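Lecture notes, unit on binding sites. The following record was shown on slide 14. It pairs a sequence with zinc ion.
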Amino acid sequence: MNVVSRNKRALVVASAFVFVAVSSFAQSLSTKWEELTAPDFVKAIQQSQGTCLLPIGILEKHGAHLPLGNDLINVRYVSEHAAAEEYAVVFPAYYFGQIFEARQQPGTVAYSSHMQLELMQETADEMARNGCKKIIIVNGHGGNNSLLPYFAQSQLASAHDYIVYVFERPSHDDAAGRPPMKSSKYAVDFHAGEGETSRTMVSRPDLVHLDRAKSESGEDQARQHLPDSLYTGIWWYARFPNHYAGDGSVATNELGEFDTKAEISDLVTAIRAVKADAEGLRLQKEFNQKATHPLDTKQ
Ligand SMILES: [Zn+2]
């Protein structure tokens, strides 16, 4: 084969490849549960190997400059991008978590504790009944940090044919190459501050009102003085009565891009690890069998 015909052949192979790639792209399944048809949902569960994401946000004030649904918007942005990279089915908008500490602010929807747990359990049960045997709860809201591990732990109270994992956004504060924070109150960049506002500038820039970010104080007001060994529910209000912790006015697109990319990459790694985890479900089943007759468990 001379050079010309070899090149010609390479071109044909390449265009065939492009055609296959384009046609498979055209037929590719949505990652979003609510966008799939019923027949496509069956294929989606197969393609995801029964791995589904349940991104959880909340409805709560985010300073004077970010939307009430900020956490849900950001966590869904990350979940959808991660699922597009490592296929998983993403459950529709879910904002039924823990947010008692913002009940004094407008727009907060705070369901009772039993409702939070029952709704999450029934949602997980229904997801599993539809083939989601590995459910990754993707947490987008700091107020859920105790609720979600408790929920995952409580799955051992009775037998399930599925397993729940909780994904918490790892900190990249000291990561190499991260744009330096501008906020002088770095130590309290907790809520609607520089980091979070920067991420929303990536996910929904049209909903960020930077010019309003200084209209209230996000400073730690330190109104309660207790040793670190004590926890009490009013701690957040004691420190941040405006439900704002940090300084969102100095947020940047660069910081948002860095943190959002890092979080997507962390979630992709987590989805791959969950798909590869054969031990979790097997051990859970073994545990549940033993738990029904503990006196027979070898001592
Ligand atoms: Zn938030």
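Take-home: Confidence is low (pLDDT under 50) at residues 1-6, 16-26.
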